[in-house]
């Protein structure tokens, strides 16, 4: 197919989907077939500036829009997402690779945040102290910042954009979104539905690009806050560069999540949970479970864990019964296979080898099957690196305390879990573990939108997380007002040169 016949991904600027004038383009490739689905532009600096300028202009009126009117837009938006769920999942699977069921889950977890945004009026409340001094009241307003921006990754091209712009816009800000250039199509369909729901021109804008676009977002003086989800390397760059430019920044970054398996755990339930969390979405989740620590007698469960993993079907996400789809790109596949080999070279035991699987009908796909490496220790590349593929590292410990020490010594703090039937063990774990999100018999403890995503340590920069109550504080400025009103006939007070209110 010639480039002339391949559709182009548009920019969204001031309510219009426009063709970029750039001379830099990237192919959007189906990872199961290598079919080129579309071409995405790397927006020019002028186009990025136009998106920000229109967002800044739209803020003047959007910030004055009543909370109820904003909320009703998101009520309509969640309805449109539900009505188009199958289409959104199909687009997502084609460009990202995950199974259709997992793609629907991707959209649904974002939809939950949209629903939360529709109730933002309950969260964006200030405080009032009456009569703090004679006739003086003090109260706070939570006011929007202005133009905010989001930079999102390839692995959740529906959910993570929906973490960002609905909450920012619902609180009265305008938004410039830069989705992953690897799979922007489902994000653009969500943008179309957002306009259909009634988001006014300029309130939501979408640009595309790579490093230059990221830096432009970090540097632009009219962008007040930046939200990022992605790798630690890029997130650290974004945090430092945007913070130095005076912006608020939140960066959710890399991970190396561990699960502790105690010998008293429910064996069948635990093994099923471990397999699903380690290999689902081809391991391309920041909250995936790439490391397990088998404590005591639970180390005897490893052969059965491997047998369960071996039964998972590796194929294209559109094929019925697929458990593990392709990874996003050829370079990702090569990187994962290289790390597996490096793990073997460094002394890990290859319990299950998922490299070069036979996938009928998809010989050109970026496939790697479930892989298990045992005897993994800190210092090995497979342990120290976020593999972001369907590779499970197995460690052993003699006690709960030893297992906790292993996890707390790791620089990342995104998520962790423990499998046990003991309330006492679970309580000690949740108290002593130094990780932001903890699961007890829950392998992927991503909180619902009533709470905020709370990764910690090397997995997060910035003190406020996305969605939930924390993000209201991120997207608003607290203004404190101290007011005194006088009766018309009240006698004037004497001049007071102190700062004390009486």
Automatic annotation (TrEMBL):
User: Residue limits of the Aldehyde dehydrogenase domain?
Assistant: 17-481
What InterPro entries does its record include? Ald_DH/histidinol_DH, Ald_DH_C, Ald_DH_N, Aldehyde_DH_dom, MeMal-semiAld_DH
Q: Which Gene3D superfamilies match?
A: Aldehyde Dehydrogenase, Chain A, domain 1 (3.40.605.10), Aldehyde Dehydrogenase, Chain A, domain 2 (3.40.309.10)
Cell membrane in keyword set: no
Q: What is this protein called?
A: Methylmalonate-semialdehyde dehydrogenase (Acylating)
Homology family: Belongs to the aldehyde dehydrogenase family.
- Which sequence ranges form a coiled-coil region, renumbered to this chain? none
Alphabetically sorted, this entry's keywords are:
Oxidoreductase
Supply the source organism for this entry. Halopseudomonas pertucinogena
């Amino acid at each position: 197919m010639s480039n002339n016949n391949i559709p182009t991904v548009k920019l969204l600027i001031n309510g219009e989907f426009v063709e970029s004038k750039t001379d830099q383009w990237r192919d959007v490739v189906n990872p199961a077939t290598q079919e080129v689905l579309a071409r995405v532009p790397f927006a020019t600096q002028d186009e990025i500036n136009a998106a920000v300028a229109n967002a800044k202009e739209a803020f003047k009126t959007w910030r004055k829009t009543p909370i109820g009117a904003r909320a009703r837009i998101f009520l309509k938006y969640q309805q449109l997402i539900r009505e188009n769920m199958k289409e959104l999942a199909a687009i997502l699977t084609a460009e990202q690779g995950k199974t259709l069921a997992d793609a629907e889950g991707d959209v649904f977890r974002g939809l939950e945040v949209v629903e939360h945004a529709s109730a933002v009026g309950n969260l964006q409340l200030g405080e009032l102290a009456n009569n703090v001094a004679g006739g003086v009241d003090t109260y706070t307003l939570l006011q929007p910042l202005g133009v905010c921006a989001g930079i999102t990754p390839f692995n959740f091209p529906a959910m993570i954009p929906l973490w960002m712009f609905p909450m920012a816009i619902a609180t009265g800000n305008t938004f410039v979104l830069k989705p992953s250039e690897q799979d922007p199509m489902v994000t653009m369909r969500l943008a179309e539905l957002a306009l259909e729901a009634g988001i006014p021109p300029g309130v939501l804008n979408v640009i595309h690009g790579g490093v230059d676009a990221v830096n432009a977002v970090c540097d632009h003086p009219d962008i007040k806050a930046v939200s990022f989800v992605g790798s630690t390397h890029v997130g650290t760059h974004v945090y430092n560069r945007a913070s130095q430019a005076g912006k608020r920044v939140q960066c959710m970054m890399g991970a190396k999540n561990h699960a502790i398996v105690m010998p008293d755990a429910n064996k069948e339930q635990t093994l099923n949970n471990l397999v699903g969390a380690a290999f689902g979405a081809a391991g391309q989740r920041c909250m995936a479970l790439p490391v397990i620590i088998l404590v005591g007698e639970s180390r005897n469960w490893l052969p059965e864990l491997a047998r369960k993993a071996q039964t998972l079907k590796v194929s294209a996400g559109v094929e019925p019964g697929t458990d593990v789809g392709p990874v996003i790109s050829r370079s990702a596949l090569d990187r994962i296979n290289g790390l597996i080999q490096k793990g073997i070279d460094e002394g890990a035991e290859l319990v299950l080898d998922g490299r070069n699987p036979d996938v009928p009908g998809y010989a050109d796909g970026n496939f790697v099957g479930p892989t298990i490496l045992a005897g993994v220790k800190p210092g090995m590349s497979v342990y120290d690196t976020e593999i972001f593929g369907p590779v499970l590292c197995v460690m052993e410990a003699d006690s709960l305390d030893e297992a906790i020490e292993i996890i707390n010594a790791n620089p990342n703090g995104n998520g962790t879990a423990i499998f046990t039937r003991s309330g006492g063990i679970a309580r000690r774990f949740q108290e002593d573990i130094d990780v932001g999100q903890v699961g007890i018999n829950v392998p992927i403890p991503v909180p619902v939108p009533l709470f905020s995503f709370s990764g910690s340590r090397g997995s997060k920069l910035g003190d406020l997380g996305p969605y939930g109550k924390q993000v209201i504080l991120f997207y608003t400025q607290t203004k404190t007002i101290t007011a005194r009103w006088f009766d018309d006939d009240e006698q004037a007070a004497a001049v007071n040169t102190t700062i004390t209110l009486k």
